[in-house]
Design a protein that fits this description.
- This protein has 5 helices and 8 strands, in the order H-E-H-E-E-H-E-H-E-E-E-H-E.
- It is of the alpha/beta class and 151 residues long.
- It has a single domain (3-146), classed as YbaK protein.
- Strands 1, 2, 3, 4, 5, 6, 7 and 8 form an 8-stranded mixed sheet that branches.
Length: 151
């Protein structure tokens, strides 16, 4: 998958930021100097029928499985194993962007992210971040906005 080509073809403004390879938002924040609350985590879950669904949440928050179940009308959700996440999105965990996935997946975005105009996200590789507008993330995914944040 080529994220830059996808973003250009959809007329999205973006910027890449190189960093040392990382797997988690907290590590990415330290490696890049970007504040944790300005990073969006793209987390792949699977529902009771092993269908992948995506939760997007601020790097300084945890996603509530219970709230994701309610938002997605799923009986149960659990974290997808790395191989399933990569097969569904086309990208390795730790680098999964919030847009441009291999398959069209249901995407649920935590409403708390709407206060920010831009966020930094996985860029398709563990060695860089990509800066995107929240409105582009919502538009490109036809994302459902709901409360996903664990208290």
């Amino acid at each position: 998958m080529n994220l830059a080509a996808f973003l250009v073809s959809h007329k999205v403004d973006f910027e890449f930021l190189k960093k040392r390879p990382t797997r988690h938002a907290a590590e990415a924040s330290q490696a890049s100097g970007v504040r944790l609350n300005e990073i969006v985590k793209t987390i792949v879950f699977i529902d009771q029928d092993t269908r992948p669904i995506i939760a997007l949440i601020s790097g300084d928050r945890n996603a509530s499985r219970h709230k994701l179940e309610q938002c997605s009308s799923s009986k149960s959700v659990r974290l997808a194993p790395d191989d399933i996440a990569q097969a569904a999105t086309g990208y390795p965990t730790g680098g999964i962007p919030p847009v441009g996935h291999k398959k069209k997946l249901p995407v649920f975005l935590d409403g708390g992210l709407l206060i920010q105009e831009y966020v930094w996200c996985g860029s398709g590789a563990r060695s860089k971040l990509v800066k995107l507008k929240i409105e582009d993330i919502v538009r490109l995914n036809a994302a459902t906005v709901c409360d996903l944040s664990a208290e």
